[in-house]
Amino acid sequence: MSKTMLLNTNWRFHLGDDPAADFMGYDDRSWRLVTLPHDWSVEHPFDLCNASGTGYLPGGIAWYRKHFTMPEGVTGQRVRITFNGVYKHARVWINSNYLGERPYGYATFTHDITAFVRPGENVLCVRVEHNEVADSRWFTGSGIYRDVLLEISDPICFAVDGIFACTLSADEEKARISIRYETLGGDAASFSLTDPSGREVAAGQAPGENGEIQLDVRRPQLWSPDTPTLYKLTGSVLKKDSVTDTRDVRIGLRTIRFDGNTGFYLNGQSMKLKGVCVHHDAGALGAAVPKAVWARRLLLFKAAGVNALRTAHNPPDPHLLDLCDEMGLLVMDEAFDEWEGSKNKWWQGHNVYPPKHFGYAEDFPQWHKVDLEGMVKRDRNHPCIILWSIGNEIDYPNDPYVTPLFQEVLGNNDANKPAAERMYDVRKPDAGRLAVLARELTEIVHNVDRTRPVTSAISFPELSTRTGFADALDVSGYNYREKFYEEDHRRFPGRVIYGSENSHDVQAWKAVRDNDYICGQFLWTGIDFLGECPGWPIRISRAGMMDLAGYPKPLYYMRKAMWTQTPFVKLAAGDEQTWLQRFTWQGVSGEMQTVSAYTNQPEAELFLNGRSLGRKEVVDYCASWKVPYEDGVLHAVADGVEDELCTAGKAVRLTLTPDKMELIADQQDVVQVEAALLDANGRPVGTDEIITYQVLGDVHLLGIENGCPDDLTCYAESHRATWNGRALVYLRAGKQAGFITLHAFTESGLAENLVLQSR
Fold it and tell me: Is the dihedral of CA 497, 502, 505, 506 positive or negative?
C-alpha cells in the first residue's frame, strides 16, 4: 500500500549560489536549519532598491539540502517526491543525480526517484533562482514555500493524480458519479465510496490499466456552502486479483450549471456568487502560509456572507482548496497572469514608468501545457472548484497586446500612462493572437476535465468581444466593466457573464443583484496583500476588506450588510472615506467626525452619551452622521440590534489571546495570538506601542503582523508596534511536548505571559 510522508523538517538552507552544492558529499554542516514551508524574502528588510510591485522585499539564489533515511523494507518499491510550490526556477537533484527543473513558481511537480534512492542516507538538493524580483505584479515570495511530500508505493500503482471522480447527475434521490483512473501496470481498479459516517454507499470494479467506472449513490448528501458534505473514495489497483496500491480521495457530490440568461446553479438551485479575490501571502509569513492561517481568514469571509474565492492569479496551495471543500466555499482556480507577452512590472510605484518586463512570459511557450494540465489534474477532485481560469487581464490594452481597434476604442483606463502607452503601436504583439492562445488553453483544460467551464478575467470586453478572445471561452469574466453587462447580454445571446474582479462599490453589486443573467462577482480584494503598492513607504495593496493581519475593515461590514440576512449593525468613525474609518471613538473636542452605521436593517438611530442624534434611513447599507467629537459613548440601534464605540483611556493592560491553548508537537502546527492594548475599563485602546516578544520552550516565533501599510519593521525582528491597538503573533510548534510561554512587554512597562501546552 502507498505511504505518503511530509518531508518538511530539518532542511539545510544557504542564501547564495554554490555550483558544488548539488553533490551528495558536499559539507553543508554550516548551513542554517529551516522548516518548510519557508520563504526567505520575509526574513530580510524592506528596501527601496527592491521592486514596489513585490513589496520591496528581495529575492536571490538559494540552496536547500535535505538528508533523510529511507524506511526499511522499501527495496523494489516506487518512490516519488512532490513539491507543492517552489518560487521559482527549481532545479532538483537526488544523491548527485539531476532530476530536472520547473520554472513556474506556482506549479506542483513530482519526480520519480526510484532509480536513485538507496538504503541508508539520501540527500535531496534544490536550487532556487529568484534573482529578478520585478517579475510579478504582486508579492511572490522566494523558496520552498509549500509542502514537500515523499511517497512510497508498489511499482504497480496509480499514476500521479490518476483518479478523477466527478458528479454526472444528482438530486435528493440519487447521484451518479464517474470515476476515471490511470494506473502504472494494473490489470483493473476497484473503488469504494463511504459517507461521512464511514458507511459504504457504493462500490465497483473496472478492467484495464486505464478506464472509467460509474457508481450510483442512493439518497446522497449533496455538497453546498451550507452543507459541505464530503465522501471518501478509496481506489485500489489490482494485479492478478491482488491489491498493489490503495489511495483515498475526498469528493463532494454536487452539480453545477451556468446559464447565459439566468446565471449560476448549484445542485439545481439558483445562486449568486458572492466572491473575493485572494493572493497567496499572509504578510509576516510571506508566501509560506500555514493551513490554520487560511482557516481563520476563511471563517471571517464566511461570516461576511462570502461564498466564493478567486485564486488571484495563480494555482493555490492545496491546503486552501481542502479548507474550501470543508467549509463550503466555491472556487475559481486560476492558472496564469500572463501568456506569451510580458506585462508591465512596477518597481518604482504602481504605474510609475518605466516598467520592467520579467516574468512567466519567458517560460510560457515551453511550459504552459505542462503547467495548466498539472493544475487541473491536481485540483479536479475538489468539489469547491466551479471554474478553471486560464488567465487574468491577458487582454489589458498595450500591456502588451495591441489591436487596430484602439483607433476606435480608447485602449487604456489609466490616465497617468504616457501618451504612447495609450496609442496603437504596430510593433507590439497583435491582440488577435490571444484568441488563438485562448482556444489552445481551453482545449488543454477540456482534455483533462470537461465538467467545469473555462473562463478568463477579461479587462477590456469592448475589445475582446471583437478580437475573438471572448468567443474562445466557455464563460466570460469581466473585470470592472459592469457598464457593458446589459449591452453585451443583448449583443451576445446566451453568453455567460460574471464579474471576475470588482470594486467594493455598491453599484457594482447592484449590477449583479438586479440582473439574473449575471452570475456573481469577485471583489478586489478579500484581504490586503504585499506588493502592488503605490510607492515607498507603502508596502502593500490596501484593496482588501480585511487588513494584512486578517482584521476586518469598515468595508468588511458594508459587505456583510449586503451579503447576510441575520440582523446586525456595526459602527465606525473618522474620515469620510470608508477605508480610513476606525472602530474607535477618539478625537479633539468639537472636531467634526463622520460616524457610519453599517447594517442590513432599513434604518438606524445614533446616540452620543445617551442623546439621540437622529434616526436615519439606511441608504446603500449605511447610515451616516456628522458628529462634533466629545468623549463618551456612541451607541447605534437598528431595529433591535446594537453596537457602540467608547472613548478609551490610557493603555494600562496588555492582553494575549490565542486561537487555541494546545498545539501538536509536529513542527507544523501553528497558534495565532492576538496582542491588544486595553484601558482600565477593559476597552480597546487605538493608540500604538511597540511590543517585544520572547518565547520559551520548543516553539518558534514565525512572525508578527499588524496590518499597517507603512510599517517597514523587518519581519525577522521580535518586536513590532500595534496598529489600532493590536497585532497578530504567529507561533509554530517544535517537536518536544511540554509547556511553552510567550512573553510580551512594551516600552511603557506593560507586560503579559501566555502559557500554552504542546503535546
Answer: positive
Domains 157-251 and 262-541 share a fold: no
Work out the mean pLDDT of the chain and round it to a whole number: 95
CATH code for 262-541?
3.20.20.80
Strands 330-334, 385-392: pairing kind? parallel
- DSSP labels, 495-509: --EEEEEE-S-HHHH
Kindly list the domain boundaries of the chain, sorted by start residue: 3-153, 157-251, 262-541, 565-646, 653-758
What percentage of residues in the chain have a pLDDT greater than 70? Answer: 99
Q: How far apart are CA 216 and CA 374, in angstroms?
A: 29
* CATH class belonging to 157-251: mainly beta
Residues belonging to the active site:
393, 501
Under CATH, which architecture does the 3-153 domain have? Sandwich (2.60)
CB contact at 8 A, 453 and 475? yes
Q: What is the CA radius of gyration of the chain?
A: 27
Q: Give the CA distances from residue 280 to residues 121, 138, 319, 511, in Å, rounded to whole numbers and listed in that order.
A: 35, 10, 11, 28
E strand or H helix that includes residue 462:
helix 461-467
Q: How many residues does the chain have?
A: 759
Query: pLDDT by residue (tens digit) across 742-752?
Result: 999 999 999 99
Q: What are 228-240's pLDDT values in tens digits? A: 999 999 999 999 9
DSSP of 715-747: TTSSEEE-BTTEEEEEEEE-SS-EEEEEEEEET
Q: Are 180 and 212 in contact (CB under 8 A)?
A: yes
